[in-house]
Protein 1
Amino acid sequence: MEHHTLGHLVWFLIIGGLVGWLAGVVVRGRGFGIFADIAIGLLGSILGGWMAEVFGLSINSSFGEFLMATLGAVVLVGLTRIVVRTA
């Protein structure tokens, strides 16, 4: 089992923020603010991992994981925009 440290948590949050910001730029043209970007990035990472599993993709690199996290965050932002528009 991997030993998690405060450094790992900070890195996880930084990557989550970057992925969320990138998704905001791709979908809307800008980010959503640091806390929303982190939340979108973290949830998008989970969604991206799930999508990779559903499609049978084997992601074996950090770059591949970053791309799937970004794709998941973009999908999450797109779905959120659809739901907000129709509500």
Protein 2
Amino acid sequence: MRKNYRHSQETKEKIRKSATGRILSEETKRKISVANLGRLAWNKGTKRWWNSPSDFQPGQNKGENHPRWKGGNSREYKTGYYSKEYRGWRMSVFLRDNFTCRNCGVKNCYLTAHHIKSFAHFPVLRFDLNNGLTLCEKCHSETDNYGGRARNVYKLNGANSVEIPTTISG
């Protein structure tokens, strides 16, 4: 029977370094394999989250049961972009402007239906045809209320006194 020796950290490090990169012969690999027969894997019998008898049940944190549930209210402006009404408004703006950027006149590029008065801050004007412009992506990125710029203006000027861009800068 083999004795159980306790080695110091220094000795363990020496053994590790001497064994690193060593190529084992087929006979040595076979002996190691035979010596390990019958041993259980280190993780045999450990609990896993999907089959543990804990309080967790799949689907228990969905919908009303989720800790951050707020009554099923999603952000209204976010759902508006995916509505049929928005898609219809967008297509109407493109058709009115003949699928041409109103700022630079480009036709064959990615076009955006731009809200002159912000979609988020002016919900009454979201689907008003007069509140839309067809712009190419470059011209759209140069507008005063692109990508949250209107939000910053909105915070600075107050809720009722937002300056709305009437022309496209560029």
